[in-house]
Prior knowledge:
Strand content: 15-25%
Amino acid sequence: MSALTMDFAEVRDNFSEVADEVNKSGRSVTVLRNNRPWVVIRPASAARNAVDVAADFMDEYVDVFEELAE
């Protein structure tokens, strides 16, 4: 399942339709602003859960947490 790419203005003008299509198809949409990737719209079911996000955050900043613990 490949991601779609759309310009910001097109997404802004058709947000409801874009959101419906993302939800139905399960395909993400990469929104371009000034011809560069800006944001990604994806179905909520594809979002990572909070525990996964927290674990990745802790792994990324483990050195900071260790220093704060001292």
